[in-house]
C-alpha cells in the first residue's frame, strides 16, 4: 500500500486533476501548493501500513505481538535468573557452612545462597536476571562477614539464566503451538509443560518408552546443552511428582520420567587458508562463535551434523579463504545424532 501511495504517485495524481492550461511545472504556485499535502499524505499511508502490520502475528513486534497471540494463552517469557553451584571452605580446607540468604559478589554481579546441596556446597541465585549471570566462574567475596569462611567460589552452572524472550523466538513458539496444538496429554502437551519451567530450552517426548502409560521427556537447558539434575528435578516435580498419581500436569495413570539430553562431543579439524591480515587466533574465535549458533539451531532439530555444512560455515567465517582436510571426529562423513542426543563441539583444531 505504501509503495502505491508514494509522494511522487500522489503528487502526480493531484496535478493530473488540475486543468492543463495552468502552469504545473516544479516551482509553480500550483506545484508548490500541492507538494506539501502530497508529502503529508504519503507519510500517513506509510504509518497506516505500519499500523496494519502490528495487528498480525507474522509482522507484529513488541507489545503488539504480545496482544496478537494472547488468545492462545502464550505469553512472552520474562528474563530468568541463573542458578549456580557455590563451594565454600574454612582455613583448614574443610567444608564451611554459610547461612541461607548470604550474599556474595563476583565481578559486577551479586549472588544469594538459596539452598544447601551438600556440606559446603550451596545453590546460588544470581540477583541480576538474564544470560549475564551465566558468564562468571571463580572466587566469591562475601558481602557481609561470615565467621570462619576462608574461600568461596562458583564451580558450576546449574540452571542458565535467560534474557527476556525476543520477538522472533516468541513468534516461532506461537506458530508451533498453533500448528501443533497441545491438548489432552498429547506429545505437544508434555513439551509445553516441560518448557513452562524457567531454564528449559527444549524438550523431546517419547511415548510408551518403557511400556503402556509410560512417557519419557528429555530436556535441554537454555543453552541447548544437557540439563542439570536440578533442572531435571524441577521439571519432574512440575509434570509428575508422584508417578502416575496425576498430582502434576500429567493426567492420572501416566508415569513420566524426565531425563537430561545426552551430549555428543564432536571434534573438528581442518587446514585453512587465511586472507591477508588475519591471524589464526582471530579466525578460531570467529569460527567458534559461528559453530555455537549452529549447535543451538540443531539441538533436537536434526538427526546428524553435516560435514558439508561445517565446511560452508568455515567458508563463511571472516578471514578464511579456503579449507582442506576437514574431519569430524576423525572421519570424513556426517556425524549421526540419536534421538536423545544434542551436539557439543569439543576440540576445534584449525591449522594452516
TrEMBL record:
Baseplate J-like central domain span: 182-259
A Pfam family of this chain: Baseplate_J_M
Record domain Baseplate J-like C-terminal: where: 266-349
InterPro entries reported for this sequence: Baseplate_J-like_C, Baseplate_J_M, Phage_Baseplate_Assmbl_Protein
Family under the similarity heading: Belongs to the Mu gp47/PBSX XkdT family.
Protein name per the record: Baseplate J/gp47 family protein
Amino acid at each position: 500500500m505504501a509503495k502505491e501511495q508514494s509522494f511522487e504517485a500522489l503528487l502526480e495524481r493531484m496535478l493530473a486533476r488540475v486543468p492543463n492550461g495552468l502552469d504545473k511545472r516544479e516551482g509553480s504556485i500550483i506545484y508548490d501548493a500541492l507538494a506539501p499535502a502530497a508529502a503529508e499524505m504519503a507519510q500517513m499511508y506509510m504509518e497506516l501500513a505500519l499500523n496494519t502490520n502490528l495487528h498480525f502475528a507474522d509482522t507484529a513486534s513488541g507489545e503488539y505481538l504480545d496482544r496478537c497471540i494472547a488468545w492462545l494463552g502464550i505469553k512472552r517469557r520474562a528474563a530468568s535468573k541463573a542458578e549456580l553451584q557455590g563451594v565454600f571452605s574454612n582455613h583448614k580446607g574443610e567444608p564451611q557452612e554459610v547461612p541461607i540468604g548470604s550474599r556474595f559478589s563476583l565481578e559486577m554481579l551479586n549472588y544469594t545462597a538459596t539452598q544447601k546441596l551438600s556440606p559446603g556446597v550451596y545453590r546460588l541465585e544470581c540477583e541480576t536476571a538474564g544470560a549475564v549471570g551465566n558468564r562468571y566462574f571463580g572466587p566469591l567475596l562475601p558481602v557481609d562477614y561470615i565467621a570462619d569462611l576462608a574461600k568461596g567460589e562458583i564451580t558450576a552452572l546449574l540452571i542458565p539464566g535467560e534474557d527476556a524472550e525476543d520477538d522472533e523466538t516468541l513468534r516461532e513458539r506461537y506458530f508451533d503451538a498453533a500448528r501443533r496444538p497441545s491438548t489432552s496429554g498429547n506429545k505437544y502437551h508434555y513439551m509445553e509443560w516441560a518448557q513452562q519451567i524457567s531454564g528449559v530450552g527444549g524438550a523431546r517426548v517419547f511415548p510408551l518408552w518403557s511400556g503402556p502409560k509410560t512417557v519419557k521427556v528429555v530436556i535441554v537447558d537454555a543453552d541447548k546443552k544437557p540439563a542439570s539434575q536440578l533442572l531435571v528435578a524441577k521439571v519432574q516435580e512440575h509434570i509428575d511428582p508422584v508417578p502416575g498419581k496425576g498430582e502434576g500436569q500429567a493426567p492420572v495413570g501416566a508415569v513420566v520420567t524426565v531425563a537430561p539430553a545426552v551430549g555428543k562431543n564432536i571434534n573438528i579439524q581442518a587446514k585453512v587458508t587465511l586472507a591477508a591480515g588475519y591471524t589464526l587466533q582471530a579466525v578460531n574465535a570467529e569460527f567458534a562463535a559461528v559453530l555455537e549458533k549452529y549447535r543451538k539451531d540443531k539441538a533436537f532439530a536434526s538427526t546428524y551434523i553435516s560435514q558439508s555444512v561445517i565446511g560452508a560455515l568455515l567458508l563463511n567465517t571472516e578471514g578464511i579463504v579456503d579449507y582442506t582436510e576437514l574431519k569430524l571426529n576423525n572421519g570424513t562423513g556426517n556425524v549421526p545424532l540419536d534421538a536423545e542426543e544434542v551436539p557439543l563441539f569439543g576440540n576445534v583444531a584449525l591449522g594452516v
